[in-house]
Design a protein that fits this description.
The structure is a single chain. The protein has a four-stranded antiparallel sheet with strand order 2-3-1-6, covered by helices on one side. The protein has a two-stranded antiparallel ribbon with strand order 4-5. It has helices at residues 17-24, 55-65, and strands at residues 5-9, 30-37, 44-52, 69-70, 73-74, 76-79. It is globular. The protein is α+β, with helices and mostly antiparallel strands and 80 residues long. It has a single domain (2-79), classed as 2-Layer Sandwich (Alpha-Beta Plaits), CATH 3.30.70.330. This is RRM domain-containing protein. Residues 4-80 form the RRM domain. GO terms for molecular function: RNA binding. Keywords: RNA-binding.
Length: 80
């Protein structure tokens, strides 16, 4: 369900999938999380996706986390 998917941008280069899942979304039910990497340099492209358990949780996570700081950078959290 696309209503469960969240786009997270503005990530610090050091944020990996585990960090994204556990530090940002620890109080929500996360089904899947992934940081997108450049296939040539293997460096983070500074964005990722998080799939929540329900669309309501996705909406709640967007409201709570959009504009917050993660590892020194302000992140943007929005629907896909």
């Amino acid at each position: 369900n696309t209503g469960n998917n969240i786009h997270v941008s503005g990530l610090n280069y050091e944020v990996n999938t585990k960090t994204l899942r556990h530090l940002s979304f620890s109080s929500f039910q996360v089904t899947k999380a992934s940081v997108v990497y450049d296939p040539h340099t293997f460096k983070s492209r500074q964005f990722g996706f998080v799939m929540m358990g329900t669309s309501e949780e996705a909406d709640g996570a967007i409201m709570v986390l959009n504009g917050t700081e993660l590892m020194g950078k302000v992140i943007t959290v929005s629907n896909v």
